[in-house]
Design a protein that fits this description.
- By secondary structure, this protein is an all-alpha fold.
- It has a domain of 190 residues.
- It has 11 helices and 2 strands.
- The chain has a two-stranded antiparallel sheet.
- The protein is globular.
- The protein starts with a helix and ends in a 13-residue tail after the last helix.
Length: 286
């Protein structure tokens, strides 16, 4: 039972980490608490569902849906966040919550409130005497690693990544060095939205799709952000996997009703003992 619970926990944690990667990037670079990121995840699932219903290949549908979510993410920034540049974080948070509500309501008008699921073309599993792992779970975990590696390569081995890291470290100095804040902002939101969109596109094939499906993942993504450390991509992966393992273990060995209690208990303990997160760096005031 333990081996099976570990497999299930890693699969759930991979989902949390995928959503948290995009959130971590946007928050770490632009300091925007984008609570509407969960709606980008939701739109990725719905767009894929619509395209598959039109007889598109699942993988082509997932790719097209991700590109559509990138466009929505850039528009979201232009409407909800760019006009509030320089305003307090609370103002950004309220704007993000308002944008999330609007997107949810629009999705309800278009698709209704009933849940649905994209037909899963990834079937089959590998079984041993100790556990069973589905090929879909393997793909989700592999996608997490590939997504993390791709973002890491962009940030550390490209001019765009250099610009993003410079803006994250010191926005004013980056601008003085000739870095375009506008292009960097668009690129950051595009990458973040793509990560949320692809997560929704794939997970919509195994989870129910409905307009408010992004609420729980975004709350868990913020928990992952705190656990792993703000701005740390590897911390987002580690935090997501850890959170998934804890939730599955609590649900399996104690009670499913205490699953979320275990999540936020870990959050409180970490804030008390290591507020900068597992891989975050404590700020030094001079």
């Amino acid at each position: 039972m333990l081996a099976q619970q570990l497999i299930n926990g890693l699969a759930l944690g991979s989902m949390y980490a995928l959503v948290a990667l995009g959130l971590t990037l946007v928050f770490g670079v632009l300091l925007i608490p984008n609570f509407a990121h969960g709606e980008l995840y939701m739109l990725g699932a719905f767009f894929t569902y619509v395209l598959v219903a039109l007889d598109w290949n699942f993988w082509l549908a997932a790719g097209a849906a991700t590109l559509a979510v990138v466009v929505v993410g850039i528009v979201l920034d232009r409407i909800a966040f760019r006009p509030l540049e320089g305003k307090p974080a609370l103002t950004m948070m309220i704007s993000a919550l308002g944008a999330a509500t609007i997107i949810q309501q629009l999705a309800t008008l278009v698709w209704g409130s009933e849940s649905r699921t994209t037909p899963n073309t990834i079937t089959g599993s590998y079984a041993t005497g100790s556990f069973t792992i589905t090929y879909f779970q393997i793909i989700i975990f592999a996608l997490l690693l590939v997504s993390w590696a791709a973002v890491w390569l962009v940030l550390n081995h490209s001019r765009l990544g250099l610009s993003i890291r410079a803006v994250a470290q010191n926005r004013a100095a980056a601008q003085l060095m000739g870095i375009s804040l506008d292009r960097t902002r668009i690129a950051t939101f595009a990458i973040g939205a793509a990560l949320g969109g692809i997560a929704g596109a794939l997970l919509g094939a195994s989870l129910p799709i409905y307009p408010t499906m992004g609420i729980n993942p975004i709350l868990k993504a913020f928990v992952v952000l705190v656990i792993g450390g703000v701005g740390s991509l590897w911390g987002a992966v580690l935090g997501g996997l850890l959170l998934g393992l804890v939730e599955v273990m609590v649900a399996g060995y104690i009670s499913s009703e205490m699953q979320d209690i275990g999540t936020f208990l870990i959050l409180v303990l970490l804030l008390l003992l290591k507020p900068e997160g597992l891989l975050g760096k404590a700020e030094v005031e001079r």
